Amino acid sequence: MSDVFPISGGDKIPAVGLGIWKIDPSDTAQVVRDAIEIGYRHIDAACDYGNEVEAGKGIQAAIEEGLVKREDLWVTSKLWNTYHRPEHVRPALEKSLADLGLDYLDLYHIHFPISLAYVAPEKRYPPGWFFEPDAENPAMKEDLVPIIDTWNAMIEQKTSGLVRNIGVCNFGVSLIRDLIASSSQKPSVLQIELHPYLTQQKLLRYCAEQDIHVTGFSPLGAQSYYSIGMAEQGEGVIDREETKSVAAEVGRTPAQVVMRWAIQRGTSIVPKTSKKDRLRENLALFDFELNEKQMENLTSMNQDRRFNDPGDFGEKAFNTFYPIYE
Q1: Which domains, and CATH codes, for the chain?
Q2: What is the Cα–Cα distance from 130 to 138, expressed in whole angstroms?
């Protein structure tokens, strides 16, 4: 299996990237630089992660050291919820580009199908979820913008050359179908939560039919959510006996088995880690395969269990009930 996947338009996205969500800004530059040295070519960033400046420093360090050229890298970022009005899309993109120290992005996503009231960068950046964090009862403040308006502004950024590809995150079939029906361009990539507890097989089948590549975030399931109270220790996919059994059969770690399952399904992944040994482990997925039975054993663990759901965390963390998947 190749370590890249072709996407519509002719570009190739790396099968494994480094997701920088929740990497501490003080560590990000070094982690990104080290990841590139180890062999990563995809850096998955976002305005909301709050570490794009540092990621940019890591990218620049790697380029200056001769580890890589800009054109060898695939850099992704995402439009935050507060910038959905068309007039805010280009300034938001330009802010991410400036922070990352880049002239263009390889992929720019709409981060969520959630449109919140605008917060000027000079007031607060990243804007976060609260409209007024210091209010007596802070909450999210909705600003209803038709998603097609935001999408058409995204198309303009691609036309301008500031981004090579555009995509969406956390969208379902109905929203994607509506975008395709309403605009001149379909998304090149869909990024969604994807792991054996949330296999999303109908959504993957639909995207395959539409020639939309799928990237999975949180490919290990619960691990990224322990520290923020959205999962309990021990309920991860890699903790399951089924996973450990497959890992023993192929002589790999449970994490490698779960990530190999993902790329064998034809989806790229963006696992997160700050540790060098884990960076190497997460990239070492191309010298073994899972057989059909092993793939089925992992797929059969599906629970439709979603760890990253605004319908749950919106109310718990931001005092606002905001379901998007129902």
Answers
A1: 12-318 (3.20.20.100)
A2: 6
Which residues lie closer than 8 Å to 82 by C-beta, 6 or more apart? Answer: 88, 116, 117, 118, 119, 127
- One-letter amino acid at 306 equals R
- For tokens 């976060």, what's the residue? 128
Sheet strands (E) in the chain: 4-6, 12-14, 18-19, 42-44, 74-79, 107-110, 166-169, 189-193, 213-217, 268-269
Annotated catalytic sites, by residue? 49
CB atoms near residue 234 (< 10 Å): 9
**CA separation for the pair 257, 308 (Å, rounded):** 22
Residue 66: which residues within 8 A CB-CB, separation 6 or more?
none
- Closest by CA position to 186, among listed 157, 210, 156: 210
Residue 314's region, left for phi above 0, alpha for psi from -120 to 50, else beta, is alpha
The pTM of the full predicted model, rounded to 2 decimals, is 0.96
Residue in the block written with tokens 């995809």: 42
Separation of alpha carbons 291 and 194, rounded Å: 20
What pLDDT, in 10s, does the model give residues 182-199? 999 999 999 999 999 999
Residues 6+ apart with CB under 8 A from 174: none
Rg of the chain (C-alpha set): 19
Q: Which residue has the higher pLDDT, 230 or 318?
A: 318
Q: What is the pLDDT of residue 41?
A: 98
Mean pLDDT of the chain: 96
pLDDT in tens, 230-254: 667 777 899 999 999 999 999 999 9
8 A C-beta contact, residue 223 and residue 236? yes
Q: Which amino acid is at 73?
A: L
Alpha carbon distance 180, 231 (integer Å)? 35
Which two tokens mark 193? 């939560």
